[in-house]
Amino acid sequence: MKQSDLTQNSLPEDVVIKIASLLQVRDLCSLSCCSRFWRELCGSDCIWESLARERWPLLACFDFPASSSSTSANAPNFKEWRKLYIERNHKMAAGAAAAAKFLKACRPCNAKSFKVRDYLKVMEDLRALKFGFKDVQLLFFKPRIDVLLNMIGLHYCQACLEIPSDHLVEALEACEISDRHVYIKWFKDVPRRYERCMMWERNSHWISLADLAAVGVEHILGVFHQGDAACEVFRVVISEFDLRRRQR
Predict the structure, then answer these.
(1) DSSP per-residue letters across 87-113
(2) What is the pLDDT, as a whole number, of residue 166?
(3) Which end of the chain is more exposed for a tag (fewer CB within 10 A), N or C?
């Protein structure tokens, strides 16, 4: 008797599906290569439905296909959910690539400054695509990409997904980017009450991504939203090095 037949005959299908549902996507795909039995089982809607809902909690009900619980009990391999997962996975990758390309175009000649509205546009694009926490970890929490993209992913997780700080710090450490630093500086014009001239308020932070997650990114970057709305922020500079040290 073949090993796949032995597995199929020795365990109830619901038990085998439960075991498969505990796997990560990469392991699930590897398991599906073992035999025809596992390939059919690992494509079951009842497995991919939970994976899709977990990865994209912001999706509304109408964005999903019919629940596998509403399909025939003897047809678990409807595969609409697997198809949705693959399509959205490609869409998220394309969205992350578009964000990186847009920000690069906004910072010609490796400039270290950018406009607030460009940063906020990327945030809104991610929100429109309904990026999930797993998407950010896979596509924005990479050690070899621009640290600005790391920070945008972090900002999005706190501002849009409301991920707790301890979960974010854990994710940053797992992705080996917790020690990456960003230097954030902005200039804001503040009118003096009895004089026509303007004074410049300067704020700066040299901080690691882990510390930025721990203190709350909105505590530091909340000025982006406030300044952009009131047209107060004159310039924002973000870089991978401390400009204060370089100027000494």
Answers:
(1) HHHHHHHHHHHHHHHHHHHHSGGG-SE
(2) 93
(3) C
The per-residue DSSP string of 182-220 comes to EEEEEEEEEE-TT-SSEEEEEEEEEEEHHHHHHH-HHHH
What is the C-alpha separation between 24 and 30, in angstroms, rounded? Answer: 10
Contacts for 217-220 with beta carbons within 8 Å, 24 or more apart?
217/151, 217/154, 217/155, 217/158, 217/159, 218/158, 218/159, 220/184
Altogether, the residues listed in the chain come to a count of 248
pTM for this entry: 0.76
The rounded mean pLDDT for the chain is 77
Q: Which residues of 41-57 are buried (b: 16+ CB within 10 A; e: fewer)?
A: bbbbbbbbbebbeebbe
What is the spatial distance between Cα 131 and Cα 142, in angstroms, rounded to a whole number? 16
Q: Assess contact for 190 and 198: CB atoms under 8 A.
A: yes
How many Cβ atoms sit within 10 Å of the Cβ of residue 168?
27
Among 29, 53, 24, CA closest to 42: 29
If you ran DSSP here, which 8-state letter would residue 236 be given?
E
**Pairing of the two strands 113-114 and 233-239:** antiparallel
What CA dihedral angle connects 135, 168, 158 and 118, to 10 degrees?
-60
81-85, 104-108, 118-122, range with the lowest pLDDT: 104-108
Determine whether 114 is exposed, middle or buried from the number of CB atoms within 10 Å of its CB (0-12, 13-18, 19+): middle
How far, CA to CA in Å, does 210 sit from each of 69, 181, 244?
41, 9, 21
| Mean pLDDT, residues 198-222 taken together | 74
pLDDT digits (tens, 9 = 90+) for 152-202: 999 999 888 999 999 999 999 999 999 999 888 777 655 555 444 444 456
DSSP structure class, residue 74: T
